[in-house]
Structure formats: C-alpha cells, structure tokens
Design a protein that fits this description.
It holds the Pfam family Glyoxalase. It is built from 4 helices and 20 strands. By secondary structure, the chain is mainly beta. The protein has one domain: 2,3-Dihydroxybiphenyl 1,2-Dioxygenase, domain 1, CATH 3.10.180.10.
Length: about 300
C-alpha cells in the first residue's frame, strides 16, 4: 500500500472568491502564487505550496482532499487499483504528479508526489509555558497581540460517509493508515460508527489523527483543521475573528480524543473550519480505544459542542 506522509490540501467550490480570501486571510492563511479569478490557492507558513483551494462555482460544495505520498512508486501502486486514474502530471501550481481516486461516496481523493516545496514563512517561536513544577520562561514575558493566527499546516479533515465500514476499508486498502480511536454508540460497546485514522510511519511520531470517518445520512466534510503555534495564537485569533464579525461555531475548548485545544468557526459558505494546537502525538505502538460518550462529552473543558454536532 502507498505510504501517506502528509495531508496536502482540502478543496472546495464557492461562488465568491473575494469573500473566501478575506475570511481565510483573517483565519491565518496567505494567498499562494497561481491564484486567479477562477481558483484561490491559500498556503500556511509551512512548506506545502498550498493547503486550501477554492474554485469558483455557482454553489458551494466540498470537492475532496489531497494526500502526499512518499515516492513515485506509491503513485504507480495506487494507479493500478480499480477506479484509479493513471499517473498524470498535476495541474495545480507547484506541479508534481498525481493519481485521482474516488471514495465509495464519490469524494475525490488525490495522491500527489513531487509537488514543489516552498520556503517557510518566518513566525515567532511558541511561548514557553511555566508550570507549577517546571519554570521554562525566565526573564521573558508573553506578548501576544490580537491578530490572525499563523496557520502552519493542514492537520486533518473529517468526512461524513454513508457506509463507515466500506469507506474505512477503502482508505486502508490504499494507504498506510492505522486506527487511533473509535466512536461507538453512546452508552454501549457496539460496533464503531466513527474511526479516527492516523499515519503509520513506524517509530516516527505522528498526529493522533489524520482523518475521522463518520457514519452519517449525508455525505461531505464535517470540518477541516489547521494547526497553529500555541494556545496564545488560538486565543488571540479567536478575539480577532470575533472583531472581524466572523461566525463562531464552538470554542475554545480541549478535546477528549486527540487532546487538541480547538476553536471552530464557520466560513462565509457554511463550512466548519478549526484552529487547533497541543494535540497528542503517537507512533505505531499506540493502541486504539472505544469512546461511547455523546458529542458534548468529547470536550474536556471549555465550549462544549451540542449533541447534534457530529450528525
């Protein structure tokens, strides 16, 4: 199976690219080269050429996601699977090569290799935290202005699917994914209706989840999630987005599964988008558990999502 190494981008369609750019800039992204009147490419401060794409269209919709793989041979392996395209030159800025696939719900998943890396954008270092047992910030002060966060990268995305088991199998047949944790019906020990998926890079540390697949009666994206520097970046950006009149969804709080400090917003087209920081990192030794609480129980402290949050 192919070795996935990064979540490269999420792709949407929307009727107003100027409105999209304004929100995503306020959210902490930077317009990337190659953008024009038909397509908006936004990057973070990391080395991915772009991490968020909006194509101009009459109606808003989620198109799909792009997964970076380790080698060109990974693309050859994926291209040989039923329903995959041939290996072809990528058409988006940054180039490279890609294979186009579709999940059982017809969500577009591209695997990409060889896309140009860009120079990272300089950012402040994370603030050192002083705890009761360890004092790491000495003769230094925290000074965080209310301003947009600086997005580092796309961390994960969450898909609503009609057939959880078939979709999980589809991804596991193609990529080096492992389960991190499961959602099971509240108060039961039943079969999973949600699976948190992570990369398998052996002893190398990876995020607790790269993706969450949720059984649902509709198909699409629940949210896409972007990592920021630290908790001060989350909180200052929260204030800035409120000042700019953007729509808060749920936040700030700390998740149970993955432990991230989160802040969810709605973009101008109704799509949910998340800032996060301080998530769990795991390796191949991590063992999945089953979570049988409600949506509200997924928050340890802070703003709790409503019961219908994952529906």
């Amino acid at each position: 199976m192919a070795t996935a190494i990064d979540a490269a981008q999420v792709t949407y369609e929307a009727p107003d690219l100027e409105l999209a750019e304004k929100f995503l800039t306020d959210f902490g992204m930077v317009k990337a080269p190659g953008s024009d009147e038909n397509t908006l490419y936004m990057r973070g401060i990391g080395t991915q050429h772009h991490i968020h794409v909006t194509r101009k269209a009459d109606k808003q919709r989620f198109v799909g996601a792009v997964i970076e793989v380790a080698t060109s041979e990974d693309l050859d392996e994926l291209a040989a699977m039923e329903g995959s395209s041939a290996v072809q030159e990528a058409t988006e800025p940054g180039g490279g090569y890609e294979v186009v696939m579709y999940t059982p719900d017809n969500v577009e998943i591209k695997a990409i290799w060889g896309r140009e890396k860009v120079e990272p954008i300089e950012d402040r270092a994370p603030f050192k935290m002083n705890t009761v047992s360890e004092k790491r910030r000495i003769n230094e002060a925290v000074r965080q202005p209310v301003a947009p966060a600086t997005i580092t990268r796309l961390g994960h995305f969450v898909l609503h699917v009609r057939d959880h088991d078939a979709t999980v199998k589809w991804f596991f047949d193609r990529f080096n994914f492992l389960p991190s944790d499961y959602f099971v019906p509240p108060g039961t020990d039943g079969d999973p209706y949600g699976t948190f998926i992570r990369l398998d890079l052996g002893e190398e540390l990876v995020d607790h989840h790269f993706m969450l697949i949720l059984q649902s009666d509709w198909v699409g994206i629940h949210h896409s999630s972007f990592e920021v520097t630290d908790v001060d970046a989350v909180m200052a950006s929260h204030d800035y987005l409120l000042q700019q009149g953007h729509k808060l969804d749920v936040g700030v709080g700390r998740h149970m599964l993955g432990s991230q400090i989160f802040d969810y917003w709605k973009d101008p087209f109704g799509f949910r988008i998340e800032h996060y920081t301080d998530g769990d990192t795991v390796n191949h030794l991590h063992k999945p558990s089953k979570f049988n609480g409600t949506a509200s129980d997924t928050t340890q402290w802070g703003s709790r999502p409503p019961l219908e949050f994952f529906e």
